[in-house]
Cupin domain-containing protein (Sphingomonas horti), 114 residues
Amino acid sequence: MEAGERSGVITLAGLEAQVPGPNGERSALALKRGTLDVRLSVPLPPNVQTPHEQDEIYFVVRGNGVLVHEGRRTSFGPGDILFVAAGVSHHYADFGSDLALWRVFYGAAGGELP
């Protein structure tokens, strides 16, 4: 979609062509609207993350791995949805170079109430 468009289709292939970015970025911006921030993420091991200010959802496009969060290890695969509340420490483990996820940040800093 072009800036200013109010509807459209965002293609996986179009964003995959932008990864890696010019400085080695492993994600590409798909949509930014208000607090909504959507990126295609194609991480490489090791995956190191810091807790984020907003709630986040990951939609697994392809690949398998383990979400390490709150002292737990939870396996995931294609079609799964991962949720991580704002401020929760997390990262991916045991995944290969085929992993691709839609990463969605939304809501106010500090997260939304349950």
The mean pLDDT is 95.
